[in-house]
Amino acid sequence: MGVIDFTDGNFDTEVLQSPQPVLVDFWAPWCGPCRMIAPMVEELANENGDRVKIGKINIDENPEAAQKYDVSAIPTLIVFHKGEIVERLQGVQPKARLQESLDAAKS
Prior knowledge:
Blueprint: E1 4-5, H1 11-16, E2 22-27, H2 32-48, E3 53-58, H3 63-68, E4 76-81, E5 84-90, H4 95-106
Parallel strand pairs: 1-3, 2-3
Antiparallel strand pairs: 2-4, 4-5
């Protein structure tokens, strides 16, 4: 499926109303750690296919979602399932840790 670009405009439809688990990477272009994890987020999107949604939301261009979910540091990665937060992680995380969160949300 690839990494989806989430926005304040499509967040409700793409994330909160999604029947499958969704990993949202809250990021900004000026954030070094965000750029470090970007390839890993892309790999997770490619490896998980249609079983989950994986996307990014630029907090500079889309401040509403970041404020709503109290994102005070980036990168912040939040796993949603059926509109609810399943897990919230801050900072650079190992790929295996993110996959564990997605697997737990699927079950």
